[in-house]
Amino acid sequence: MCDRAAAREVRFSRSIYRLETIKKAAYRLTDRCSFEFTVDEDHIHCYLFSRDQTSVRADDELEHALRNEVLDQDLRESIALETGPIRNAILAYAFSRTGLQDAEPI
Amino acid sequence: MPSPFKTPAEYETPLALGYRLLPFNFTKLGGSDYVLTNQAGEYVVVDRSVLEQFVTHRLPPDSDAYQAFKSKHFLLDRDSDVAIDLLTLKVRTKLAPLANFTGLHIFVATLRCDHSCPYCQVSRQSDDNVAFDMPLETAEKALEFTFRSPNPAIKIEFQGGEPLLNFDLIRYVVERAEQINRTERRSLQFVIATNLALATDEILAYCKAHDILISTSLDGPRDLHNTNRPRPDRDSYERTINGIARARAILGRDRVSALMTTTRASLSRVRDIIDEYIRQGFSGIFLRPLQPYGFAVKTKSYHSYDVDEWLKFYFEGLEYILSLNREGLFFAEHYAAVILSKMLTPFEPGYVDLRSPAGIGIGAIVYNYDGNVYASDESRMLAEMGDTTFRLGNVHRDTWQDIFTSDALLDPLEETYTGSVPMCAECAFEPFCGADPVFHHATQGDLVGHKPTSVFCRRNMAIFRHLIRLLDRDAETKRILMSWVTS
Amino acid sequence: MLTLAGESLRFCNIDDRRRFVIRLSSSPTLPKPLRESTAYLSKAPHDTLPPDFPLYVLVGDAQAAEKLIGDRRAVILPEAYAYLGSGDILRITPHRCAVRVLYRRASPNNSILLTERCNHYCLMCSQPPKAADDSWLVDEVLQTIPLIDPETRELGFTGGEPTLLGADLMRILTACKNWLPRTAVHVLSNGRRFADRAFVQAYAAVDHPDLMVGIPVYSDLSTIHDYVVQADGAFDETLRGILNLKRLGQRVEIRVVLHKQTYTRLPYLAEFIARNLCFVDHVALMGLELTGFARANLDALWIDPHDYQGELYEAVSHLAVRRIRVSIYNHQLCVLDPRLWPYARKSISDWKNEYLEECKGCLRRQECGGFFSSAKLRYSSHIKAFV
User: Fold this and answer.
1) How far is CA A74 from CA A71, B103, C41, C320, in A?
2) What residue spans in chain B does CATH classification 3.20.20.70 cover?
3) Where are the beta strands (DSSP E) in B194-240?
4) What does DSSP assign to residue C190?
5) Are residues A103 and C240, on separate chains, in Cβ contact within 8 Å?
6) Which residues, at least 6 apart from C22, have a Cβ–Cβ distance to it below 8 Å?
């Protein structure tokens, strides 16, 4: 168990972001550091750890990268929400056996 | 008098009613550029601000971005929905080869070899130990398995060691396969992967008679080739060149192809290697990375350079090849060509290492000299090092159904499908990429792999980004790259 | 430009009230049984007329012709019709003393009009639509087909919109299959009706040995295509029609007329075709013909072809590198980017094909397709003879 005091803390508001979103974003950066999460009523707390803890503290770059990844991940979720049904419909049509399609719109 | 013709504006009114998003993924390309891809692998590059506008339904219909998104099927507006029909057709086209099942059947004729290459991905046994030859009974069983695949096109490839050391086996398989094929009526093709050192005129004449293709190894100019591929007489290069010339003379120019393998020694010599291929009259090259299997791992030659060094080698090679094309010589880089065909056409090029679901078993299968069946060539190499994770069974013990419904095959296929694993599922490059469970198991101890630290991921993403930038550089570069696709 | 039709011509002894079609022969020794259904063709200087033909067509030297006719049923045509020959087919309309040449055996470009009705109203339409019921054309075509020389290489069907004929189109195509089994048939259509499953299946069921339908697609964007053809929903239906045709193994050509409204996105259209319709059998990129509606809309349409060579080269490159067969029609070699010459075809129908003053002494005249007769209205300022 790493010493949280030595880690860099990044906070996200729970009224804006879901924990799932934060975790997915963090996963992409796990080549550069490791993460721990806690949740309270208003915030999701992200703790960034690396082997050399001083380098994490000094690294604005990593926090910057995490925040940007979270924004991107959030955008991805909007897209997935809107396009999920049609993505499945296209796959279903692609695998279907019928030669001629009906001209009905989706 | 009012004109009987309506204005363009009258046809644009439905656009004001807004648009719906069609499914797509996005990934950062570099700087503030993002690349978006749809299920058919079509792509658009935009600034992040435009991406945000697009997703939040604020993109104006008269903007260049809107028109690109509409044309390439990233959105649907009230004016047109035929995008659905077209997308479906493209996705179906990409997925269609899956139904054909295994097309490449690799027969390991023998493990014996007359070379001793340090990077060799099979155990080498000395020349005269016939216990490592595939017996005819095993070949017969393997042929049964081969024709169980429904694929209308079957390719049988002989590998080794050096397969020509067991030429009787090759003869047997070829003639039996032809006999079986008289009723099966598949499109049947044979390939021998050989160093050609032992290719007598008689052997070549046989290849000609049965339309067998030759695939040989040419690592570069003489000094590089001989360093990579030691032979007792240190004459591997001479024998290879001589073999290529003789094979071409008897079989025909385009019946002989060459593959190179990259080692530490190759990294600073990409131009020399390409020049050697041009000198030998090849119209393209496959700039391969070093794989972490077999002797490569034992002799530590996998860890001796990292991905970034190889990428530098690859990009320099690509640049050189582009300049050659600009000067009028047609010369392709085959790995780029595979990726480009996924990026620019709705067709699946069928390259086993870049497929999702993975190409193991369902794309290619290996019948080892001892009857053991492996999910891929790399799986066999892992087994030679003691890891039998991807050994699917044995032709003498198991039925075809046993093997193709085994957990050893189905679990990796299912678990590594890129459409549902972390990061890959949301990656813009997913339509161009593939699952490689064997590689990830060998390098990370995990079938799916940890993509942020995966060498496979890092290498391929760098190549995808680079090719997208190249396609955008100028019309001539784009035309050259496209010409590699349909060649 | 050939005169293919005329009215108020000199008709002698013809009392028929209905129009009819008839095939010409200039052979005085034509066997008697065949004479019953053939018109004798005589060109000045006229010789004695052989007996037993139901109709005589005399071209030129009207004075001499009048003297020879006697009480025979005859039509006297001016010298402009001297191109006529054996095997040609005419429509005779007695109440207007009119003649129209429907088919010329010596011509490589025979095109038969199936209807003038159309469900589009293209800005550049060279055959502006008419709403009147002209279904009598169907019967006439069915009568004409058996008269056509079976060695005819290719036959075109145009309109208007041929698919508006419905089942009659299939009757006509079947007649071609039966009477002209060695003749390639090329139908021009906006393709929309093929989105109808029953219709496309009936079309495929004809099983013609050499049939292709040429379908225009003017843009990769629906709004632009619909604007050019002046019909909402055209783009979607046309593409669905093309997909259906291809699902049933029918041959499809995509046609693009190049003008101010279509040239800017031409490279994107080429990419669109390469990605979505790469299975089409041919793509024809066509120069504008300044006749019909094209004249009325000249300002919206005219661009000097010289000015879109960049877009044209990019589009052709893109299609060619994807191994899609592509041709350029109706462009002159002096105006085309030289790298595009291998794709240029001599495509203008012989009867409306001409050259300009600027073409005098041009070394490439033989290979060049020349101009539409209507080009005199407006043409590129870069026309120059090769010397």
Assistant:
1) 5, 41, 82, 42
2) 100-333+347-404
3) 212-217
4) -
5) yes
6) C37, C38, C39, C54, C55, C89, C90, C92
Is it the case that residue A102 has pLDDT exceeding 50?
no
User: Which is it for strands B33-38 and B43-47: parallel, antiparallel or unpaired?
Assistant: antiparallel
Cβ within 8 Å, pair C240-A100: no
The per-residue pLDDT for range C224-273, each reduced to its tens digit, is: 999 999 999 999 999 999 999 999 999 999 999 999 999 999 999 999 99
Query: Tell me, what amino acid is at B192?
Result: I
Statement: residue B457 has pLDDT above 60: yes
With a cut of 50, which residues of chain C have pLDDT below it? none
Cross-chain residue pair C268–B483, CB shorter than 8 Å = no
3-state secondary structure of C14: coil
Q: How many CB atoms neighbour CB C291 within 10 A?
A: 18
Within 10 A of B278 (CB to CB), how many other CB atoms are there?
16
Token duo for residue B468? 């997208």
pLDDT > 50? residue B242: yes
Mean pLDDT over all residues of chain B?
Answer: 92
Residue C16 belongs to some domain of the structure: yes
The rounded distance, in Å, linking the Cα atoms of B138 and B372 is 9
C178 and C267 inside one domain: yes
Domain count, chain C: 2
Contact between chains at C197 and A99 (C-beta distance less than 8 A): no
**Interface residue B79 vs chain C (CB under 8 A):** yes
This model of the complex carries an ipTM of 0.92
> The sheet that has B24-30: what strands, in order across it?
B24-30, B33-38, B43-47
- Assigned CATH topology for domain B100-333+347-404: TIM Barrel (3.20.20)
CATH at C84: 3.50.30
**Residue B17 near chain A (CB below 8 Å):** no
End-to-end CA distance of chain A: 52
C-alpha to C-alpha distance for B421 and A85, rounded to whole angstroms: 19
Q: d(Cα B454, Cα A31) in Å, to the nearest integer? A: 9
pTM for this model (two decimals): 0.92
Task: Please answer yes or no on whether A103 and C247 come within 8 Å at the CB atom.
Answer: no
C360 and C264 share one domain: yes
C222 → closest Cβ in B42, B80, B486: B80
Residue C383 lies in a domain: no
Summarize pLDDT for B283-298 with one digit per residue, the tens.
Answer: 999 999 876 665 445 5
For C81, the domain range is 5-103
**For residues B416-428, average pLDDT:** 93
Whether the predicted pLDDT of A105 surpasses 70: no
Report in angstroms the alpha-carbon separations of C90 from B158, C6, C8, C38, C140.
70, 11, 15, 10, 11
Q: Kindly state whether residue C335 falls inside one of the protein's structural domains.
A: yes
The pLDDT confidence band at residue B228, using thresholds 50, 70 and 90, is: confident
Task: Considering only the beta carbons, identify the residue of A28, A79, A101 that sits closest to B85.
Answer: A101
pLDDT tens-digit profile of B144-156?
999 999 999 999 9
Q: Could you tell me the residue range of the domain that residue A14 belongs to? A: 4-95
Mutation site for B-interface testing, chosen from A87, A97, A98, A102 by largest number of B Cβ within 10 Å: A87
